[in-house]
Task: structure prediction
Amino acid sequence: MSNFHEAARLSVTAIATLNGYRFRNAPGAHEAVVDYALAIGIVDTKGHAQLDQLRQLRHDINYPADLVEPSRRELDVIASLVTSVIGSASEKLPAPRIPPPPD
Result:
């Protein structure tokens, strides 16, 4: 679960960095990443709500009061969301400037 969250968070953070922004290492930073994803159109309002639920679920798993185990259906929904976030973030990246190999 944490890996899904990290994949989405790092994808959005990469775009923010490309745009000259940096999320502070402080409480609320992961929530700011989720809000930024909505602000720049990586997710719509439904995706924002789902991404925020994923953020909270990751928090609950990493800092448990009780054992949290998502269902298979929940994992499928989360995997689809994260795939969409990564795809949308990738579309916002410029083409790489890698020179061709020497002959």
In short: The mean pLDDT is 89. Helices lie at 2-18, 29-39, 45-62, 72-91. Residues 52 and 77 are 13 Å apart (CA to CA). The two ends are 45 Å apart (CA to CA).
